[in-house]
Amino acid sequence: MPAVVVLGAQWGDEGKGKATDQLGSRIDYVVKFNGGNNAGHTVVVGGEKYALHLLPSGILSPGVVPVIGNGVVIDLEVLFQEIEALEARGVDTSRLLVSSAAHVIAPYNRTLDKVTERFLGSRRIGTTGRGIGPTYADKINRVGVRVQDLFDEKILRQKVEGALDQKNHLLVKVYNRRAITVDETVEDLLRFADRVRPFVADTPLVLNQALDAGKTLVFEAGQATMLDIDHGTYPFVTSSSATAGGACTGSGVGPTRIDRVVAVAKAYTTRVGEGPFPTELLDDDGEWLRRTGGEFGTTTGRPRRTGWYDAVVVRYAARVNGLTDLVLTKLDVLTGKDRIPVAVAYDVDGTRHDEMPADQSDFHHAKPVYEYLDGWTEDITGAREFDDLPVAAQRYVERLEEISGTRISSIGVGPGREATIIRHDLLA
Ligand code: GDP
Ligand code: IMO
Ligand code: MG
């Protein structure tokens, strides 16, 4: 019975939610290990659309235990909004487990996220404004508030005092904002203490015991490799570990217990927010991808930047994550294009780079070296076997597999759970 990590190979929104959901009833536990409600996963089941942010996607399959791991940052108000919205649609959320060591997004961190972005001006990151960066900064700075602190008002007050001490100087003196009081913050956080208490557990213990008992676990990443704090396009990244190592630190499960590392990649590329993107298209093709792919953010509704498939990025993801499999999504979106460019390398100021440049400036200057593959016109949304695909689509997948350095085990041909071609079972 395997432990499988599912993560993003590109800049997010690859379809991780659908990939996790698709494993559905065959999993026992699904664990979110990083990020917070900056994530947005759209899952379509039986024509019904669900947008998930803080809850792991496996929550839609009856019997699965959803776990919010210690590596996640939690906005309690959003958590309960999401729980209520799902319950109203008949989804049972009662099995949810929340790590007592997960950090809480305090209201001042949402404020700071927005204020610092405004202050950065043209150097802004284009964050989701959910308070993610400042909350992880507090964690590393050792002034964070954790879920367990909510159950002792005295300790909570001390921690909030410690955090606000520095932040109010910053807010008032640098950003010209009003000071935030300890009372209002403590009151805000305590609103949810009694509600969250029944879900709180020693999740590293629970997960290790589940592995001992032979259960199947999926670790679902938010964000993606190129947004990872260490391995992404720093500083245009999120503030957590979205790569495979994060599955271990963010859940309390050791690397020797992980069997498979699966990355989800779109058949093209998208990015939300600022930062370098070598294959970005600022022309009609980019607009066509955005329209046919429905490329608008699940969380902020922002139009996503679009571009062709970049094999340098996916090969890099294969390297830093130790990938065993790729899930290729949205192949259907490319239908109708007669020639499809895919980037196989970069040209950086006249020098060819087959590997991701280690230097940030080189990556900013990278121009894609394209190879052109034949397109197809047939509707592929009904394909369920690889052989159902037109020969050009089969060749596209096979070529992507060759240049990406990892086998493509599943292919998405539509948003629905069933619109998938399985070539290798991810749980076998
Ligand atoms: P995530 O953040 O990685 O879970 O991805 P998002 O949910 O933010 O974005 C992926 C979008 O693509 C969602 O709207 C999905 O419903 C949709 N999607 C996923 N796989 C496919 C596919 O194979 N074909 C099509 N057309 N849409 C897909
Ligand atoms: P899922 O899980 C795409 C981007 C933001 C911004 C940068 C930092 O749905 O794939 P943050 O608010 O995290 O500090 O913003 O990261 N970003 C995402 N882009 N998909 C996501 O999540 C993202 N989560 C954050 O747009 O550029
Ligand atoms: Mg998303």
Question: What's the structural blueprint in terms of helices and strands?
Answer:
Blueprint: E1 3-8, H1 16-23, E2 29-32, E3 41-45, E4 48-52, E5 65-68, E6 73-74, H2 76-88, E7 97-99, E8 103-104, H3 107-120, H4 132-141, H5 153-174, H6 182-190, H7 193-196, E9 200-201, H8 203-212, E10 217-220, H9 244-249, E11 260-266, E12 269-271, H10 284-293, E13 305-307, E14 309-310, H11 311-321, E15 325-329, E16 339-348, E17 351-353, H12 360-365, E18 367-374, H13 391-404, E19 408-412, E20 420-422
Parallel strand pairs: 1-10, 1-11, 2-5, 2-10, 5-7, 6-8, 7-9, 11-15, 14-16, 15-19
Antiparallel strand pairs: 3-4, 12-13, 16-17, 16-18, 19-20
Helix pairs in contact: 3-4, 5-6
This protein binds guanosine-5'-diphosphate (GDP), 6-O-phosphoryl inosine monophosphate and magnesium ion.
6-O-phosphoryl inosine monophosphate binds at residues 8, 12-13, 38-41, 125-128, 130, 132-133, 222-224, 227, 238-239, 272-273, 298.
